[in-house]
Amino acid sequence: MKKRGYWFTTGLKDGMPIALGYFAVSFSLGIAAKKAGITAFQAGLMSFTNLTSAGQFAGVSIIASSASYLEMALSQLIINLRYCLMSCALSQKIDQNAPFFHRFLVAFGVTDEIFGVSVRQDILVPYYSYGIMSVAIPGWTLGTVLGVISGQLLPLRAVNAMSVALYGMFLAVVIPPARDNKVLAGLVPLSMAASLLFTILPVVKQISSGTRIIILTVAISLIAAILFPVNEEEKGGESTYEA
Asked: Residue 151: which pLDDT band, with cuts at 50, 70 and 90?
């Protein structure tokens, strides 16, 4: 049985690339928050308690337009609904002996990138998630605060370059496991092609980006599960949770 320290340290190592990517990308969020009249403290608190880039950008835009709380709530629900799917997937991997409060804390830190590295674990130990969150959350928060304070001093090209770092981070999460799994290697370009079609086709392009992600995720996952089922016996393993 591996100790808590092992899993936490492993999470720290896997979370460092995410933290660096978050730090770069959140600069642009800080700039947008500054333009919306949000202070550095308020922006930092928002990033520390609400880990969603798309949701935060949308929230800042809604604040800037002085829209209603109802519009804010509905937009966040639609944009972040995909995290429910991710949490359902991780719930099947989290150690069955982990108590509720561990599950609750792990759920708080579910983002696209954290999900990408966590779902690769055969059994998800809470301390592994805590290690990732311990560097990823400060990276996102600090970048937001610095974006508010000094982001406007940077040239526009530099800010745009930082935003591209998020896509590079996604590639770093997807490519390594795709090299070892032919099914996953085939699903990646299929998902990209389907996402492109949903963006340009006349009817479906009117659907919000968050809803499109949910539809594609469910559809492609269902097809993959039917055509390429995973043998649960081969994935088996003993509990790794230490009380």
From this structure: low
Tell me which residue of 199, 144, 201 sits closest to 24, measured CA to CA: 144
Instruction: Retrieve residue 106's tokens.
Output: 């792990």
Hey, is 120 helix, strand or coil? coil
- The Cα 22–Cα 30 span in angstroms is 12
Which value, to the nearest 10 degrees, does the dihedral of the CA atoms of residues 224, 122, 18, 61 take? 50
CA 135 to chain centre: 14
Cα–Cα distances in Å, from 158 out to 53, 72, 131?
19, 30, 30
- Would you call 243 helix, strand, or coil by DSSP? coil
pLDDT category at 243 given cuts 50, 70, 90 is very low
Residues 6 or more apart in contact with residue 89 via CB below 8 angstroms: 115, 119
Q: 91 CB contacts (<8 Å, ≥6 apart)?
A: 103
Band of residue 130 on the pLDDT scale cut at 50, 70, 90 = very high
The predicted pLDDT at position 137 comes to 94
